[in-house]
Write the structure tokens for this entry.
Amino acid sequence: MRVTAFLGAGACLDIGGPLTKELTDLVRKIKPQSSDFLTKQMRESTFEFVEEIIKRLDSYYNPDVCNFEEIFHALEMISSYFRGRQKHIIGKQYKPPLGAFITLNCDKWLTDKGRDEYELSIGKLITAKKDILEVVATRIFKYMESFDSNDKHRWFANFWNDALNECAWDIATLNYDYSIEKSVSNKIIEDGYEEIDGQGLYRFNPRKLISSNNSKVLHLHGCILYGYAHHPDPNKYLFEDAFEDIYKFDTYERAKETWLGRGTNNSQSQEETVVGPIITGLRKTDKLLYYPYNSYHYALQQAIMQSPRLLIAGYSFGDLHFNALLEKITRLHGANRRVVLITYFPNGKDNWHTDPQVMGWPTNHNTLKFIASIFRDPIPFKSSKFQNPIISEDGCAHLYLCGFKDAIKNHGDKIISFLTTL
């Protein structure tokens, strides 16, 4: 017996993890700093360039505003089309097809009057993307440093230890942290990495992951402990590793040292897709083709196919490629399914209504679609009174509405029992 868990940002909010809005606010506050390859004047110009991108995206999305992933995606797109229009770059493989029909309106910040100007413009684009990744990773590292599984976050660690005591779990997470590993440090949990130098450098082995019967952790969108190949013999795996394959390090500081000084990647459409230690932007599916991400995606699909037991916590159903996997749980397992969805109803108990349109929740149609699917009911909310949890008529799906911490502290034993009892 195995149980699958799928964790979004909301599952780590109560241990100090950030939501998208907080990360976006931090990105919006990035200030000009010193740079290895840009003068102070050019660094300030980079800052103004990013400010203008944010301003234009906000205006375009009005009345909504852009988030940090959309900002990063815009930088990737601008980089693609700016590079593609350069006369000195020859070759179909470097030019996105849409570049033949569009004109960039960024000449104030990105110039291509000569090779030097072009290199400086590329430098600004690289710096802007690096800043976003660094501010996100730094925020994750900050809360991981304060994560205390023996005291204030003991409730979090106890749940995962109790759960893994019952059976093996496949824990897939979209978060960039390593809170699961810190919570169950006394247990064997497989991530597919094996040490290769005896000094805290790990290389991914897909067979190790897939063949293991132990509990697994799948960092679907990366981790701040991830970095690029960096060992004394750079040619040791020359004919085995892809350029984009990700290594793991024993510390964030060591991993971060490898993040710069590399070229970027292209999707098949010849648009830039930064395959990095943390996956962000809007072209995620193109970034999951390399180790360990492709194997983690496969392992998640395998877990859902083989086990009818699924816990989803803190996920907003914003990633369509993962929604496509999760939504298959009802078709694959029917009446045998056991699904727990832990989310958060923000409008207060007095504002509960059986009609989602009236109460304005869920705001994401994909969430409501999933609830209807696991409840096997187009109208999943029957009672006009707020209930926590809400249980499907056949008892196969449980919906918790007060967030991860409330669910775990007040109903953790019940959740584990429901998911692990034969």
Remarks:
- The two ends are 9 Å apart (CA to CA).
- The chain has two domains: 2-16+148-420, 20-145.
